[in-house]
Recover the amino acids of this structure.
């Protein structure tokens, strides 16, 4: 556990590499015809789970760590097709790894792949993806017959075809099938049932697949996604900075009255959490977008009404911003945030309430009456890296120091979070 004292966060920093782009680039590299060269790849625990998965499935990997940037240059020489892992494929707490490699496991020559993860991951829903694989000519089951890991997937390939699956649970189901569909025999056509959440993540997947030469078509509004059989050619790609991981740094500078210049963020590439710019502006925070950098200054000056259905990972940090903004803010559209590393709606309500914030829990979000945070309490991160980072920001702006449990979980996405925050003025006792 750590004790975080009221602080002022200010300075300049480089955004950490995007976890989402790193996952996708590595997965596509495994399935490619030729070598991929990836730079600025994240070294977070979740991405390491994907790196381990491509190695277990036969990719030859050369990793050169860039210590100054806390990232890596990775060369990936793919196998002719994915191989059956020699052991259980352990995905840690990475839902992206689990979901991507469930469908990738169906592309192996023969035999069975077993996938599992930590306690949190073994309680995340996989049923719609398992059903879709079966409909596309594969075979995949939950060992507990409850649609949750551990999973067993039979190799032999995917026939392809048309499949409908719910859009309200996770966009990762669609991204997984888009990536694997490129190696199916006849291609895949994916049709979302109901509202599709987190669409920008599908933009990211489509962008990288096209960069690798895959033939795919996305109808307006993602009403239909078509992927033709077209083995990826390999990637030459530099992973951009991660808006979602930069978000706590931006929020901390704002609520503590500091000023932050953050580089390595690309507004041109699709990224769901680039919405943090609009979130900050909604609270009256000053945001200046320059060439290769974003400058954040000014405290929250007004309440906001936010729909985060396409950027659910911003819920914890948006809730913290709302806690310091005068008036009543409403965050909605994030019922799928209950199925992340933890139930982020309930858990943020619990922790903010401890710190003296008036919070009402909705089925799909939170109502927060903000203005002042007392602090002086012990907070729980619930084994969730994004909640830990959000609570660190909350503590920095509180009137009294707070103790936060679970700092080890931040390594899932941003291993250098605390050291970076210290460099910007956060006062931390461990």
């Amino acid at each position: 556990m750590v004790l975080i004292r009221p602080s002022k966060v200010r300075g300049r920093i480089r955004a950490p590499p995007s976890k989402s782009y790193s996952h996708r680039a590595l997965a596509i590299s495994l399935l490619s015809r030729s070598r991929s060269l990836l730079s600025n790849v994240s070294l977070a625990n979740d991405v390491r789970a994907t790196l381990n998965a491509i190695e277990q499935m036969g990719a030859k990997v050369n990793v050169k760590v860039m210590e100054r940037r806390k990232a890596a240059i990775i060369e990936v020489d793919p196998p002719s097709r994915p191989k059956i892992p020699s052991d259980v494929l352990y995905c840690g707490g990475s839902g992206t790894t689990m979901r991507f490699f469930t469908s990738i496991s169906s592309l192996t020559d023969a035999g069975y792949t077993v996938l599992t993860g930590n306690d949190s991951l073994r309680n995340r829903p996989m049923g719609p993806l398992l059903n879709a694989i079966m409909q596309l000519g594969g075979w995949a089951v939950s060992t507990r017959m409850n649609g949750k890991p551990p999973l067993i997937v039979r190799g032999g390939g995917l026939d392809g075809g048309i499949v409908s699956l719910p859009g309200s649970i996770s966009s990762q189901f669609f991204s997984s099938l888009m990536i694997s569909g490129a190696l199916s025999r006849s291609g895949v056509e994916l049709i979302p049932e109901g509202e599709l959440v987190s669409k920008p993540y599908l933009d990211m997947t489509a962008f990288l697949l096209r960069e690798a030469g895959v033939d795919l078509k996305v109808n307006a509004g993602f009403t239909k996604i078509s992927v033709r059989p077209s083995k990826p050619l390999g990637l030459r790609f530099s992973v951009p900075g991660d808006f979602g991981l930069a978000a706590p740094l931006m929020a901390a500078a704002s609520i503590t009255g500091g000023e932050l210049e953050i580089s390595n963020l690309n507004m041109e590439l699709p990224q769901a959490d680039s919405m943090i710019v609009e979130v900050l502006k909604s609270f009256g925070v000053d945001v200046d977008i320059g060439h290769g950098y974003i400058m954040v200054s000014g405290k929250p000056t007004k309440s906001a009404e936010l729909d985060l259905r396409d950027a659910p990972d911003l819920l914890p940090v948006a809730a913290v911003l709302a806690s310091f903004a005068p008036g009543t803010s409403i965050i909605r559209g994030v019922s799928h945030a209950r199925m992340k590393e933890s139930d982020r709606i309930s858990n943020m309500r619990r922790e903010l309430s401890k710190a003296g914030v008036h919070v009402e829990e909705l089925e799909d979000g939170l109502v927060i009456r903000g203005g002042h945070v007392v602090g002086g309490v012990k907070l729980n991160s619930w084994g969730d890296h994004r909640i830990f980072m959000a609570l660190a920001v909350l503590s920095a702006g509180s009137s009294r120091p707070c103790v936060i449990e679970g700092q080890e979980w931040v390594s899932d996405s941003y291993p250098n979070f605390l050291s970076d925050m210290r460099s910007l003025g956060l006062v931390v006792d461990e």
